[in-house]
């Protein structure tokens, strides 16, 4: 079942109830509002950790970390395949020791997970974006990069595109990572478990900033991350339905994310990814021979 989150403005009811002179006005207004209508936080998400650490400011949802608690929200539904976009403005000023995460995850010991983790830093020093992919409960696939902008100054769009061929991590629509389906090489690919969408902010000063050397300075709390423009366009999976049934249905849902053109990056996106990797990547598990003396199987096949 499709799940277009930009919820339909009901044109037909507007038309039916309106005199013709009002129709034009109503149409104009509905176009205006529909075009701007990103699904509201409440429709898609709910706080799952520390609801009292949330504040709502117009379009934006703020989550704060202080020395009492972090905070987190999760999607109300689970999904298999599709695309999630969230605009995030990260903690301004001193964010050392803090981690803000945006991720998709299934449940259970053999869960799959696609992670963006934003590692804070001292004032003026760059945030690091760490991505990771868990398949069947195993992660250890970290990549790290610096961004080409200051993510604390403005909102930027962070996205996960997931279909049967690939998982793509995007920043302002620029791909920063691709996890390709290599099942034909005997490498498992996550496509059998429904995933929720999550975000959280917490204290991780034991490892996050400069390897854990820089600790959270609580005199600078609260640390606030802001979110807006929530969009989930995917195959929705009722929690009451078995994963295997959802998998069958979502594999044949005919969603736009399964178009052949989305089975791999296009030429422009491939160039963007090469640029990101050449200029902004600071760590790739695939080249960490100290940690992985034999190169992880999927790395040998990754062209990137
Ligand atoms: C923080 O800044 C330092 C110095 O610029 C940099 O080496 C480091 O990668 C940055 N990020 C983190 C998360 O430590």
Automatic annotation (TrEMBL):
<keyword id="KW-0964">Secreted</keyword>
<feature type="active site" description="Proton donor">
    <location>
        <position position="117"/>
    </location>
</feature>
<keyword id="KW-0808">Transferase</keyword>
<keyword id="KW-0326">Glycosidase</keyword>
<dbReference type="GO" id="GO:0009834">
    <property type="term" value="P:plant-type secondary cell wall biogenesis"/>
</dbReference>
<dbReference type="InterPro" id="IPR000757">
    <property type="entry name" value="Beta-glucanase-like"/>
</dbReference>
<dbReference type="GO" id="GO:0048046">
    <property type="term" value="C:apoplast"/>
</dbReference>
<dbReference type="Pfam" id="PF06955">
    <property type="entry name" value="XET_C"/>
</dbReference>
<dbReference type="InterPro" id="IPR013320">
    <property type="entry name" value="ConA-like_dom_sf"/>
</dbReference>
<keyword id="KW-0378">Hydrolase</keyword>
<dbReference type="InterPro" id="IPR008264">
    <property type="entry name" value="Beta_glucanase"/>
</dbReference>
<dbReference type="GO" id="GO:0071555">
    <property type="term" value="P:cell wall organization"/>
</dbReference>
<keyword id="KW-0134">Cell wall</keyword>
<feature type="domain" description="GH16">
    <location>
        <begin position="39"/>
        <end position="227"/>
    </location>
</feature>
<keyword id="KW-1015">Disulfide bond</keyword>
<dbReference type="GO" id="GO:0010089">
    <property type="term" value="P:xylem development"/>
</dbReference>
<dbReference type="InterPro" id="IPR010713">
    <property type="entry name" value="XET_C"/>
</dbReference>
<dbReference type="InterPro" id="IPR044791">
    <property type="entry name" value="Beta-glucanase/XTH"/>
</dbReference>
<dbReference type="GO" id="GO:0010411">
    <property type="term" value="P:xyloglucan metabolic process"/>
</dbReference>
<keyword id="KW-0961">Cell wall biogenesis/degradation</keyword>
<dbReference type="Pfam" id="PF00722">
    <property type="entry name" value="Glyco_hydro_16"/>
</dbReference>
<dbReference type="GO" id="GO:0004553">
    <property type="term" value="F:hydrolase activity, hydrolyzing O-glycosyl compounds"/>
</dbReference>
<protein>
    <recommendedName>
        <fullName>Xyloglucan endotransglucosylase/hydrolase</fullName>
        <ecNumber>2.4.1.207</ecNumber>
    </recommendedName>
</protein>
<keyword id="KW-0328">Glycosyltransferase</keyword>
<comment type="similarity">
    <text>Belongs to the glycosyl hydrolase 16 family.</text>
</comment>
<feature type="glycosylation site" description="N-linked (GlcNAc...) asparagine">
    <location>
        <position position="121"/>
    </location>
</feature>
<dbReference type="GO" id="GO:0016762">
    <property type="term" value="F:xyloglucan:xyloglucosyl transferase activity"/>
</dbReference>
<feature type="active site" description="Nucleophile">
    <location>
        <position position="113"/>
    </location>
</feature>
<comment type="function">
    <text>Catalyzes xyloglucan endohydrolysis (XEH) and/or endotransglycosylation (XET). Cleaves and religates xyloglucan polymers, an essential constituent of the primary cell wall, and thereby participates in cell wall construction of growing tissues.</text>
</comment>
<dbReference type="InterPro" id="IPR016455">
    <property type="entry name" value="XTH"/>
</dbReference>
<keyword id="KW-0052">Apoplast</keyword>
